[in-house]
Amino acid sequence: MKSLFTEDMSMDDIMRASPGTIHVVLKHRMLCVGCPIAPFHTMSDACREHSVDEPLFVDHIKCEIGSKNEPP
């Protein structure tokens, strides 16, 4: 199965493609939701900007997206 996201996607694209990721972004106290820069920042950019542990954040995003791909 093809992944719903790639790590070079913008934060805006990720949140639009999988709205469940918004709570992950907010949990990490990132201000990407509604930010005018979100269409330009990748996850790496956003993590660096907000001093967030990138591997942990990416794992949380993957878990959120992955949980939506599993059959009920």
Automatic annotation (TrEMBL):
The record's SUPFAM superfamilies line, in alphabetical order, gives:
SP0561-like
A matching Pfam family: DUF1858
Residue intervals of the DUF1858 domain: 6-53
Gene3D superfamilies, alphabetically?
A: SP0561-like
Q: Which NCBIfam families match?
A: prismane_assoc (TIGR03980)
Q: Which PANTHER family match?
A: BSL7085 PROTEIN (PTHR39341), DUF1858 DOMAIN-CONTAINING PROTEIN (PTHR39341:SF1)
What is the name attached to this protein's record?
Answer: DUF1858 domain-containing protein
